TrEMBL record:
Belongs to the aldehyde dehydrogenase family. This is NAD-dependent succinate-semialdehyde dehydrogenase. SUPFAM superfamilies: ALDH-like (SSF53720). The active site is at E252. The keyword Oxidoreductase applies. It comes from Oceanisphaera pacifica. It comes from the Bacteria. It holds the Pfam family Aldedh. Residues 18-475 form the Aldehyde dehydrogenase domain. Keywords: Oxidoreductase.
Amino acid sequence: MDNAHFLWQTGWYCDGQWRDSKQQYEVNNPASGQLLAKVAVCGTQETQAAIDAAKRAFGSWRNKTAKERAAILRRWYELMMEHQDALAELMVLEQGKPLNEAKGEVAYGASFLEWFAEQAKRANGETIPSPTVDNRLWVIKQPVGVVAAITPWNFPMAMLTRKVGPALAAGCTAVVKASSDTPLCANALAVLAEQAGLPAGVLNLVSGDTAAISDTLMASPDVRKLSFTGSTRVGKLLMSKAADTVKKLSLELGGNAPFIVFDDADLDAAVAGAMASKFRNTGQTCVCVNRFFVQEGIYDAFVEKLAAAASRLTVADGMTEGAEQGPLINSVGLEKVEQHVSDALAKGAHLVCGGKRHALGGTFYQPTVLSDANEQMLLAAEETFGPVAACFRFTSESEVIKRANDTPFGLAAYFYTQDLNRVFRVSEALESGMVGVNTGMISNEMAPFGGVKESGLGREGSSMGLDEFLETKYVNLGQV
Ligand code: NAD
C-alpha cells in the first residue's frame, strides 16, 4: 500500500467538500464479513444539495475550453495510475475480486479518463450546404447539462469513470450515486479528482438511501440525463421515471451471453477464452458467459478441459498471493447461484465439477461446470452472476443461432471457429451489441460498449461515448 489512507473517505461529497451525515451505513469486506467502514447515509436533502451544486458549477465548467477540461481529466488519469496499487487494494477489500484483477480494473477505469480527455477536443459540429442562397446552416454540439450517474458494485471504479469521463469531457457536471456495496471505491476516485484540480461542484457523490436518492434525481427537472449501469429490472424502473422530465437516457443493463464453440474451433484457445470470460470477477460481470453452446463433435472434449481448468482455479481472499477467484458480493448473490445449480440438477444437468459452497465459508462458491444444460433451466433464462459454466449441446449453425438469440437480452456474445465465412455469417446473425470471435475479452475504452434489446440503450467508450452527453443544435442564419 503506498500509504494512501487519504483515499479512504467515508463522507459524502458536495460542492467540493466532504460532508458528514447524521446516519451511517456499514460497508463490509465480502471475503471476511468484517466491517470496513461506516459511510454517510444520503437522502433527499443531500441529493438536492448535490444537484444544486452541479447546476451552479455547470455554467463555468461548460465555458472552459475543451483543452482546459482535458488537462484536468488527464491529470486525474495520471493520479489513478500513480495510486494504482492502493486503489486496487481498497477495491479488493470492498468488492472482493483478486488483487491482479483489481489492478486491471484501475487501469481500465483510468483509461476512460485518458481517452475522453482526448475526445473532449473532438466534439466537432458541421456546416451544411444551404438549400437557399441567402442562408447559412451549421450544427454545434453542446453539453446536455447536469447528469445523474448510477453505478453498480461489480466494477466500482470503471463504471464510474466510463460515465463521468465523457460527461465531464463534454462539459456536463455530475451527481453520482454509487452502489451501497462499494461507496469507498467511488469516494477514492473523487479524492483524486479534487487533487487533479476539478472545480467544486463539477462532481458530487451521494449514496445510502437508494430510493430517496434516485427519486430525487429522477424528479428533478435540472437533471437532464441519466446514465445507469445495473440490472434490467432497475433500468426499466428508472426508464419509466425518466418520462416525467423527458431525460436523455443511457442504460447498460444485464445480459445472457452465449459462447458458441463450433467443431472447427481451436479447442485450447476456446477453453482459455471460456475461462477468462466466465470466471473473471467470480462470474459477476455483465458480459460473462451465461450459456456455453458446444457442437456435438467437440462437446465432450471441451467440457472435460473446461472442468479441468475450472478445478485448478485458486479460490481465496483476493489479497492472498495467487488468488484467482474471490467471494461473491453478498449472500443474495450466493443464494441465486445455489438456486440456479439445484434447479439445473433437478432438470437433468450433470455436475462435472464444483456445485457447492466453498470450504472457505462465507460467500465463497466452488468453480462449477454443468453438462447437459437445457432451455427449461432457470440459468438459461437469466444471469446466474456466479462461477457456474452451464454447457448446452447443439448440432447445426442455424440451430445454435436461433437458440443463442432466444432471449430478451443482447449485450455480449462469443464464438470460436476457424472458418472465415462463418466468422462473418455468425457475427452478423447474433442479436447482441458486442461479439467476441476467438476471444473472451472484449472490453476496452476505444470500442463502443453496449447492448441491444433489453440489455440497454446507448454506447459507452469510443467516440460514441462522448455523443451520449452532447446535444445537437442546428443554427440557420438568414441575412445579417
Ligand atoms: P442493481 O440494478 O441492483 O444496482 C445498480 C445500481 O442501481 C446500484 O447503485 C443500486 O444501488 C441502484 N439501485 C438499486 N435499486 C434501485 C432503484 N429501485 N432505483 C434506483 N436505483 C437503484 O445492479 P447490481 O446488482 O449493482 O449490478 C449487477 C447488474 O448490473 C447485473 O445485472 C449486470 O449485468 C449489470 N451490469 C451491466 C453492465 C453493462 O455495462 N451493461 C455493467 C456492469 C453490470
